[in-house]
Amino acid sequence: MKHFLCLFLSSILLLSLSSCKGDDPAPVSSKAEKTIFVYMPWTASENSTNGNLYSYFSQNISDIESAIKQQGGLGNNRVLVFISKSSTYSALLEIKYSKNQCTRDTLKRYNNYEYTTPSGVAGILNDVKTNAEASQYDMIIGCHGSGWIPKGLEDYYRTRSFGGSSAKYQTEISDLASGISLAGMHMQFISFDDCYMAGVEVAYDLRNVADYLIASTSEIMADGMPYTKVWQYMTPATPDYNGICQAFLNYYSSATYPYGTLSVINCNKIADMANVMKSINSQYTFDTSKLESVQKLDGLGQTTFFDLGSYVENLCGQKPAAFTSTLSLLVPYCVHTSEIYTAFVNYNGGFSTVPINTFSGITISDPTENTYLVNYVSQTNWWKATH
User: Fold this and answer.
1) Can you give 207-275 as a three-state secondary structure string?
2) Model confidence over 16-58: pLDDT tens digits?
């Protein structure tokens, strides 16, 4: 299963040293240009290590350090990492670069820390700000993910909003947003290195705390983002979002498991899309007989994540001009392989790949008939804003 676990990032060998060679960096001022915060909470449960992605996190951090080597240092950026080595122990680390080496400095240790609440998220972010104040902040989140689906639905394909494999270690997207807001740390981007986070429901909940989301509409292989390829595009003051997407596609197109999607979503445009969809929903009612014609972007037995553009086309008979123009601004960049992979082959009737015939880079769950989840869809903030 190690190649197929959904994750939200990947990275880190705790309390170890890693060598990076290159030119020494320029002196860093007390206030960084940007701080990139890598957040990797516990990914299993209280009593089990099943689903633990720690080894993948370790590799990702090593890959980030390799990318720092390629760049010859951090420039005027700083990189902090929150990592949970067990269900009861976490640490806040800083990756530093000096004299041709990368080192990991432990800034703070946490025992039995409650990080799934708004105050818990805010507490960690305040520690980041205290230790690495910057003009702007980026956040990379690594763990399991299932988009907007509420935490605690443990009997449903082990789904979770994001976090671990039991409700105690899962975080609602709305609570993440509240925590970021409490900390007063608006994010330039939030990069979700885990499954199913590129959805309108997620983007709408995060619209006031981040400018951009970098995420997948579907399952991400456990290896996660190829940081040796994409890091150089993430670190500039103005990230090269198209470069991130193209590097991701180039990597996975030739990988052993050649599956993946990645999107860049402009959160500043999600309210505009909500207004467009509210108008559309006031005029059209979805014909459920067309459900099989809508592009599915998950491997669940009962599809939950549908391509937004395909849904609107089937809802309206064609894509309205207002929708098309708004979508182009909402999702400026997106890429996909010809098929996506799913690890749910034992639950969905036997298929392990899904062909992508049309792709808009963002999902919607409005038309789902999933018996486990249909009653939850109308509880999302997105649904309330569009119906």
Assistant:
1) CCCEEEEEECCCCCCCCCCCHHHHHHHHCCCCCCHHHHHHHHHHHHHCCCCCCCEEEEEEHHHHHHHHH
2) 333 333 333 444 447 999 999 999 886 655 565 555 677 788 8
User: Residues 262, 244: contact at Cβ < 8 Å?
Assistant: yes
The per-residue pLDDT for 56 is 80
Give the pLDDT of residue 14: 33
- Assess contact for 163 and 171: CB atoms under 8 A: yes
| DSSP string across 287-354 | -GGGGGGSPB----SS---EEHHHHHHHHHSS--HHHHHHHHHH-SEEEE-SEEE-S-TTTTTS--EE
Phi, psi of 377 (to 5 degrees): -60, -45
Place of tokens 């520690």: 127
Residue 365 CA to residue 2 CA, distance in Å, equals 28
Q: What is the mean pLDDT of the segment spanning 1-20?
A: 36
Average pLDDT, the chain: 86
Is residue 152 packed enough to be buried (19+ CB in 10 Å), middle (13-18) or exposed (0-12)?
middle
Cβ contact 364:199 at 8 Å: yes
Residue 178 has a CB neighbour count (10 Å cut-off) of 18
CA distance 42 to 162: 10
Report how far residue 73's alpha carbon sits from residue 331's, in angstroms, rounded to the nearest whole number.
Answer: 31
DSSP for 157-170, please give it: TT--SEESSSGGGB
Q: How far apart are CA 303 and CA 106, in angstroms?
A: 43
pLDDT digits (tens, 9 = 90+) for 209-218: 999 999 999 9
Q: How far apart are CA 229 and CA 250, in angstroms?
A: 9
Predicted pLDDT of residue 195: 87
How far is the C-alpha of 161 from the C-alpha of 147, rounded, in Å? Answer: 6
| pLDDT tens digits for range 97-131 | 988 889 999 999 999 888 889 999 999 999 999 99
Question: Rounded to two decimals, what is the model's pTM?
Answer: 0.88
- How many other C-beta atoms lie within 10 A of the C-beta of residue 278? 12
The residue count for the chain: 387
Helix (H, G, I), strand (E, B) or coil at 130: helix
